[in-house]
Amino acid sequence: MSDRSPRNRAPQRRPDRVRGVAYQVIRQVTAEGGYANLALNKALREQRLSGRDAAFCTELVHGTLRWQGTYDAFLARSVSRPLADLDPELLDLLRLGTHQLLRMRVDSYAAVSEMVTLTRAEIGQKRSGLVNAVLRKISQRTLTQWIDTVPPPAEQDRLGHLAIAKAHPRWVIEAFAQALGDDGLEELLDADNEPPRVTLVARPGVSDVDELVAAGATAGRWSPYAAVLEGGGDPGRIDAVATGRAGVQDEGSQLVATALANASIEGADGAWLDLCAGPGGKSALLAALVNQRDGQLTAVEPLKHRAELVRSNLRAIPGEHKVLIGDGTKPTWPAGSFDRVLADVPCSGLGALRRRPEARWRRTPEDVAELRPLQEDLLDSAITSARPGGVVAYVTCSPHPDETRAVVDAVLAKRDDAELEDARPLFPGVPDLGDGPDVQLWPHLHGTDAMYLALIRRT
Which residues are involved in binding S-adenosyl-L-methionine (predicted)? Predict the structure, then answer.
């Protein structure tokens, strides 16, 4: 019998299961527009990955997506044709392999071998040779050495160099530099590349931080309602979270909602409005706070499925709070109906790049420009909805100047019945809040998302 008989062929290795799951999640994000956190959590559940396997899969997915632009610069120097000519499936495999070689403690031989095996299983034997050759070339340099091969040199174009070294699109770095200045820019970019801790919020009146600490969390740094799950873990295992008495919410989001609740006003204080409520984290905190004043929250959300998320977040909060499906720019209530109004407007999300690794490559400057009219209309509607003497919190999860103070200034320039107030005293104990009167939080300074707040008084 010939040695080439199928009976004498060694069986092909099966691809590593965890790498296979990571690759499929990455494909959902890059090819189908999925969100990494949602796709990954679903895959981990369905594939029953936990412990070290879940942690390894998470780093493969988030790291590959976070450093995608940088890896593409290296791959462009390692492949003989333009990356645009590669099949997207092949490019994602190369990115996944590059991440293991340059930013994970994976043996080079093992990383290349496993990726060749995965390539063979996913897209065929024919292209496994290219993956082998390219990844071997990548393995010949360290991350720092690869960064030094990609122009421009730091001394000639610092921001261009940072775009490669810190894995952010140049336009994002330019916006951050405009908002922050040069001092701390690199620290901010580094903070964006570190996965955030899981932060919980104890909704007052139905839970407290002591309960979350007893369940294994530690008290937060700034917010009186915050607790942190050190080392991660599933928040749903905590009874307060499972029942809706607590939730997962960044400490920066808690701070801006609490600032609105604590701003001084005279007279009535029982009618609060969340103008852009979905998915409802801030709504739940505000509802819990207004409930302690025997008041009511009205939450407005234009999309039905997101309105259902708001209702779910409010399920454990006492009181007759309302969830309306509608357009916040076209109020169905009389002007001046509310004492406090939150306008947490749709934005680019550049302040949450830590938790959304794919967002930095998915967003464009055009997105910021397209959102601007909606942001201005929502803020204008929020001011009109507040009664004289009432307050409005304009909030974005973005530090981009065109989404923050520029919007506030444009709207206030058209009105003579509203004015900015100094919001900094509403963040007691929180340092580095800038010159005011608005507040910008930062990942590298505060350990929060880059939340922005402008407090506006209706006159």
Answer: 276-282, 301, 327, 344
42 is in an annotated binding site: no
3-state secondary structure 230-297: CCCCCHHHCHHHHCCCEEECCHHHHHHHHHHHHCCCCCCCCEEEECCCCCCHHHHHHHHHHHCCCCEE
The three-class DSSP label of residue 228 is strand
Say if residue 437 is preceded by a cis peptide, omega within 30 of 0: yes
pLDDT tens across 398-434, in order?
999 999 999 999 999 999 999 999 999 999 999 999 9
Residues marked active site are found at 397
In the structure encoding, which two tokens stand for residue 171, read together? 């336009």
Which helix H or strand E contains 369, and what residues bound it?
helix 365-385
Annotated binding residue 282: yes
Distance CA 329, CA 221 (A): 35
**Orientation angle between helical segments 51-66 and 36-46, nearest 10 degrees:** 160
In angstroms, rounded to a whole number, what is the distance separating the alpha carbons of residues 391 and 458? 6
What is the tens place of the pLDDT at every residue in 283-306? 999 999 999 999 999 999 999 999
278 marked among binding-site residues: yes
**CATH architecture of residue range(s) 9-144:** Orthogonal Bundle (1.10)
The CATH homologous superfamily for domain 252-458 is Vaccinia Virus protein VP39 (3.40.50.150)
Residue for token pair 């608005």: 438
- Give CA–CA dist 346/100, Å, rounded: 35
CB 413 within 8 A of CB 419: no
User: What is the pairing mode between strands 296-301 and 338-344?
Assistant: unpaired
Q: List the structure tokens of 19.
A: 């790498």
Please tell me whether 399 is known to bind a ligand. no
Supply the DSSP symbol for 302.
S
Retrieve residue 94's tokens: 């190369």
Question: Are 362 and 425 contacting, i.e. CB atoms less than 8 angstroms apart?
Answer: no
